[in-house]
Inverse folding.
């Protein structure tokens, strides 16, 4: 007899592998991360229909479309040229390229960075939830990542979290979206 848990694991591994292959990720480390996130997603998901409707969330790597800049510009009311002075897309990931993230403390800077990154994923790519690993990579790129306090600093009314540890995902709350748009306007002026 087949164990239902073994069947679920095998099914999750097959689906995760298919997602990673479909994403055509060339970097071996990103490929490992994407596979791990996809397996977690399929193992812990209850609704198969929602899996099919989510836009590439399973791999943890966004699909960067050519109209990302236009979509983000329309959503924020900011010219695409100015947005390109704030954001960069590197290895299919959104990063901040401002010289420094404003904030009074490191925690403030981490929250501001996370809000800006989440805003770009949501408004520019239509991705409501973003994995904690993508936020951590963006923070590392901006020299603001602190492993012991990063997640704790995001326990703030601007953010909503779902999942645990390696399966943790974030999205902006209503006040967080408003604040991120205001903050983006401030730094692009």
């Amino acid at each position: 007899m087949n164990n239902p848990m073994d069947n679920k694991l095998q099914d999750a591994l097959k689906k995760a592998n298919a997602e990673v292959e479909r994403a055509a990720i060339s970097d071996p480390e990103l490929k490992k991360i994407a596979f791990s996130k996809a397996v977690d997603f399929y193992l812990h998901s209850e609704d198969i229909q929602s899996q099919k409707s989510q836009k590439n969330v399973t791999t943890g790597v966004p699909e960067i479309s050519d109209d990302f800049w236009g979509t983000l510009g329309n959503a924020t009311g900011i010219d695409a040229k100015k947005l390109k002075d704030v954001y960069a897309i590197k290895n299919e990931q959104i990063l901040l390229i401002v010289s420094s993230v404003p904030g009074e403390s490191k925690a403030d800077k981490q929250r501001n960075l996370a809000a800006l990154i989440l805003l770009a994923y949501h408004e520019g790519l239509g991705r409501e939830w973003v994995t904690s690993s993508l936020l951590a990579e963006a923070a590392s790129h901006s020299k603001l990542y602190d492993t012991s306090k990063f997640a704790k600093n995001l326990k703030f009314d601007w953010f909503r979290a779902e999942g645990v540890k390696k399966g943790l995902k974030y999205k902006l709350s209503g006040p967080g979206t408003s604040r991120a748009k205001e903050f983006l306007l401030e730094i692009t002026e």
The radius of gyration is 17 Å. Confidence is low (pLDDT under 50) at residues 46-62.
